Amino acid sequence: MLLKFGSFPVVVGSSVDAAKIFLKTMDLTFASRPKTSAGKYLTYNYSDITWSEYGPHWRQARKMCLMELFSTRRIDSYEYIRAEETVSLVKEIFGLSGRAFWVKDSLSTLSLNVISRMVLGRRYMDGGAAVPPEEFKKMLDELFFLGGVFNIGDMIPYINFLDLQGYVKRMKVLSGKFDRFLERVLNEHEARRRDATGHASQDMVDVLLEFAEDPTLEVKLERHMVKAFTQDMLAGGTESSAVTVEWAMSELLKKREIFKKATEELDRVIGQNRWVTENDIPSLPYVEAIVKEIMRLHPVAPMLVPRLAREDYVKGQDFELLPFGSGRRMCPGYALGLKVNQSSLANLLHGFNWSLPGDMKPEELNMEETFGLSMPKKFPLVTIAQPRLPLHLYNFM
User: Fold this and answer.
1) Using CA atoms, how far apart are residues 312 and 291, in angstroms rounded to an integer?
2) How far apart are CA 7 and CA 10, in angstroms?
3) 8 Å CB contact between 345 and 293
4) Which of 54, 75, 174, 273 is 20 to 30 A from 168 (CA-CA)?
5) CB contact at 8 A, 23 and 324
6) Cα 254 to Cα 125: distance, rounded to the nearest angstrom
7) Which of 236, 268, 191, 226 lies closest to 337, judged by CA?
8) C-alpha separations of 73 from 68, 76, 268, 332 in Å
9) From edge to edge, which strands make up the β-sheet containing 100-102?
10) How far is it, in rounded angstroms, from Cα 106 to Cα 90?
């Protein structure tokens, strides 16, 4: 389907055939990004891996992600972090037993602590950060909202300076907040690197700073690029898992028969005397299938970031394009996100009986979405959890 958004032709691919052409045959043709206000103001003038145009900078950034930052070796080396933070999640929910609470708050804390320990080298919720945790979560929500808005000025460039919707002003304010936070992060890491003798990389920011000192790089990794990559990792690692698992819990509370089958599988494979580990996931095909179905029904970024054709491509009279998370622009942190989604959901299902508050019925559960770069629930899920395993397991936690 070919549309005209202001000055630009926009193609929507909404079939499997279109996806195959776009993702396989024409992937290189559609590997770039359009110049938008979100990319300019929120990612240091298109300096991150998400919004940068296809070229030497993006290819180098992707290589860094695949070979170092999100390599299988590095992701596996951080398994203990994910396990410890899952323990903290279960412990928090056990403390809320019998009381109604917002599920996403707990899930966001899990995701933020996991990714901050991997990227920054410490738990965000332990304090000491330049921005309080709750304020930082609001900043992330604003980042994903503004990253996905339809800004009229992007489609009609000659009126962009008017900022008719006020989005650009909000982007500039948010950019300033993130820059102050990221500048402090880099200063702290640089000070630690100077003070430590024989300093070894401890987290992803350390790795990026080492790349910044590498004179052999094709494109020099400047300071603002390190900030942009760090912001990408923190934002993507926090939002995606929390949104997906909240949607999973919402769908399961509406479909109790699926919930029952999942817990039956967990009892059969894991038993009642331990918690689920990442190594258990391949033995839990039903739970794996639930996660995949939720990602199909409620993709974190349903429209994804738009792609730009690097050259004119016409098949017959139509363009064929489907913005899908695959090919060259596929999210490099996909494997990490999947691990967090699977293990956290499995332990929530295994460790607790879940119900809706008061006299609320499953069919009354609101499933509206909020549109942005991501698509979380419009109304956060409120539930009640009760322990379903022997109490000594929670005491051990």
Assistant:
1) 38
2) 10
3) no
4) 54
5) yes
6) 32
7) 236
8) 8, 5, 31, 14
9) 100-102, 382-387, 352-355
10) 9
Residue closest to 265 by CA, chosen among 337, 345, 336: 345
- Judged by DSSP in three states, 380 sits in coil
User: For 381-394, b where at least 16 C-beta lie within 10 A, e where not — what string?
Assistant: bebbbebebeeebb
One-letter amino acid of 384:
I
What tokens does 36 get?
């938008």
* Distance from C-alpha of 279 to C-alpha of 321, rounded to nearest angstrom: 37
Give the domain extent around 153.
2-396
Instruction: Please state, in angstroms and as integers, the Cα–Cα distance from residue 117 to each residue in 82, 182, 346, following that order.
Output: 9, 15, 22
The residue type of 249 is: M
Ramachandran region, residue 301 (left: φ > 0; alpha: ψ -120 to 50; beta: rest): beta
- Element containing residue 387 per DSSP (H, E): strand 382-387
Q: Contact, 238 vs 248, CB < 8 A?
A: no
Q: What is the sign of the dihedral through the CA atoms of 149, 150, 156 and 160?
A: negative
The β-bridge relationship of strands 8-11 and 2-5 is antiparallel
Block means of pLDDT (10 residues each) for the chain, 397 residues, are 80 70 73 89 93 91 89 92 94 94 94 93 80 90 90 93 96 96 94 74 89 94 96 87 93 94 97 95 96 85 64 42 51 82 95 94 90 84 95 76
Q: Rounded to whole angstroms, how far apart are CA atoms 207 and 68?
A: 8
- Counting the structural domains of the chain, the total is 1
DSSP 8-class letter at 353:
E
- CA dist 252 and 245 (Å) reads 10
Q: What is the CATH number of the domain that holds 231?
A: 1.10.630.10
> What is the token pair recorded at 75?
């992701």
- Could you give the residue ranges of the DSSP H alpha helices within 149-166? 152-155
- Phi/psi of residue 280, nearest 5 degrees: -80, -20
Residue with tokens 């029952």: 260
The Cα 325–Cα 299 span in angstroms is 10
Q: What one-letter code names the amino acid at 119? A: V
User: What's the pLDDT score for residue 317?
Assistant: 33
Compute the distance between CA of residue 352 and CA of residue 350 in angstroms, rounded to an integer.
6
